[in-house]
Amino acid sequence: MHTRTRIFLVLCCAQVITTAQQAPLTIHEATQQALDRYPVIRSSLEQVAAAEAAVNLARTTYLPRADFIGEVNRATHNNVFGQVLPESVIPSMTGPVLGTDSGNNIWGSAVGALVSWEPFDFGLRRADVKAALAERDVRAAEVNVTKLQVSTAAADAFLTFVAAQQTVIAAQAGVERSRVLNEVLEILVRNELRPGADASRTRAELALAQTHEIQAEQARDVARAALAELTGGDLKALTIESAKLLNPPDEVEPPVVGTVQHPLAVARNAEAAQIKARETALSRSYFPKFNLQAASFARGSGIGADGRTGGAGTGLAPNVQNWAIGATVTFPAFDWFSIHARKDMEAHNERSASARYEQAVQDLTADVAKARAVLDAARRIAQNTPVQLQAARDSEQQATARYKAGLGNIAEVADAQRLLTQAEIDNSLAELGIWRALLGVAAAQGDLAPFLATVGK
Predict the structure, then answer these.
(1) Do residue 73 and residue 221 come from a single domain?
(2) Do 153 and 195 share a domain, yes or no?
(3) Average pLDDT over residues 372-399
(4) Does 21 reside within a domain?
(5) How would you list the strands of the sheet with 65-76, edge to edge?
(6) What is the CA radius of gyration of the chain?
């Protein structure tokens, strides 16, 4: 008995978990899950984090630089007079020229530390930090653009799923009417009260209605898959809560928001600011570089200045020490040409970025106007579809009555039923058309909050 009780409790818990997993999804939850789970947003956020790390990297240039070295070598001690041009192949050698050319070798060692710091840089490091900050601002603005696109796509997919479900319901009603009419006609034909052609026509209409139902179910399943892709949910268990979207929204005009606040416009403006920051950094590049330096080092050698070598281990440990403190100034005079060319490039890039910003504002302004025109038309259509639906119902009833009285033909009834099915679909989608138009206005203005607030929790 104890084992049965445990099994029963486990089954109940499993049922509760399954029910919780299959809880209907609201449009608010759909948009939030898309923001939380869609991989492209995580990718964008990582780019922002990388840009923030680049800012920290730029700030490290304010710190002094400290280099340490330790070396042990076994080498020959032949030295010659003469100069060698700067290169990275021949090792350097110090000490007097002994006039030898032999394979005898000795130990050498060295340890040292060099600390250098640039006390002032004519604003270059600050400009580099600002350029890195501008890069971070661009990435952050692009994240907001991506979030708007993903949340809009999720809300649109949700509305598409609702519309597909309503189309399936209307298609099923059309199939049911065609089935009832076909069954009645089959009976009348068998009793020789109607010609066989009428039954053939109703069978064809029933098959056509079933085809439309299959197409509607296909569209519904595709819409469900699209929503599951964006939300990262289980495709088979995905259900939605659509009751609020089947009612007409309040007749409230969406708030007017300046297009310059749209995330895309902000991103384009940030790109222009980033290029300007790079120009400023280039302008601070053509200055002398001052460095304060301090060095401490020690060397050991297995041979003396007179050419005599020590024991087998002589030179393994540094035994001669030195230190130095000073300042250096370097000035890359001929960098002016490359810096000038790079500044010219950035000037063109800045003008291009400014043009893209102006184009974005212009396009967004047009998008808002188009979205409001769509909203106005959707509201007018929603006012007209109930009239269309009622007229279609009356037409179907009248055509059926005329056929029963022998005053009409089956083609009139079939046409009236198809017209009624289409009117039911149009009427069920008319209110959703308003919601979709409100979503379009909100997306064009760059903020879905007003739309989601209209839908309500």
Answers:
(1) no
(2) yes
(3) 90
(4) no
(5) 65-76, 105-117, 289-301, 320-330
(6) 40
Kindly state whether residues 270 and 416 are assigned to the same domain.
Answer: yes
Closest CA to 34 of 158, 141, 137, 139: 158
State pLDDT tens for residues 82-112: 888 988 899 888 888 888 888 889 999 999 9
Residues 318 and 346 in one domain: no
CATH number of the domain that 449 lies in? 1.20.1600.10
* Residue 10 falls inside a structural domain: no
Could you give the count of Cα atoms lying within 13 Å of 306 in the half-sphere of its Cβ?
Answer: 2
- Looking up tokens 């053939």 gives 200
Reported as a pLDDT band with limits 50, 70 and 90, residue 6 is very low
Type of residue found at 32: Q
Kindly report, residue by residue over 190-246, the tens digit of the pLDDT.
777 777 787 888 888 889 888 988 999 999 999 999 999 888 878 778 888 888 888
304 and 340 co-located in one domain: no
Alpha carbons 208 and 214: distance in angstroms, whole number: 10
- Check whether residue 47 and residue 74 sit in a common domain: no
Which residue range forms the structural domain that includes residue 71?
65-79+104-119+288-330
| DSSP notation for 12-74 | HHHHHHHHHHTPPBPHHHHHHHHHHH-HHHHHHHHHHHHHHHHHHHHHGGGS-EEEEEEEEEE
Q: Is the pLDDT of residue 7 over 60?
A: no
| Secondary structure class of 284 (helix, strand, coil) | coil
- Report the distance separating Cα 430 and Cα 441, nearest Å: 17
Q: Which of 377, 389, 381 is nearest to 422 (CA)?
A: 389
| Same domain (yes/no): 39, 150 | yes
CB 349 within 8 A of CB 272: no
Nearest to 414 by CA among 250, 185, 194: 185
| Residue 11 CB coordination number (10 Å) | 10
Are the CB atoms for 212 and 198 separated by under 8 Å?
A: no
**Residue 437 pLDDT:** 93
Confidence at residue 9, expressed as pLDDT on a 0 to 100 scale: 47
Higher pLDDT, 22 or 287: 287
pLDDT of residue 431: 85
Residue 11: its pLDDT value, please? Answer: 44
The interaxial angle of helices 124-190 and 410-445, nearest 10 deg, is 170
